[in-house]
Amino acid sequence: MKREDQWVGLTRREREVLALLSSRQTDQEIADRLSISRRTASNHVANILEKLDARNRREAGAAAQSLGLI
Known about the structure:
Elements: H1 3-6, H2 12-22, H3 27-34, H4 38-51, H5 57-66
Helix pairs in contact: 2-4, 2-5, 3-4
């Protein structure tokens, strides 16, 4: 699988959020860093978890690392 194929389904913003999520940032920290609301950050996290079929943030970070996304 090509690296760009691994990103299919994640928006550019979701990729940004995933990188921050993987470094154990909270929703509020992600929001502050990206100049978005906490609720928007939370929605992005929820979308990422669904798209990566992850049960929690830790699993999403592990999936991202194993796929070479971060």
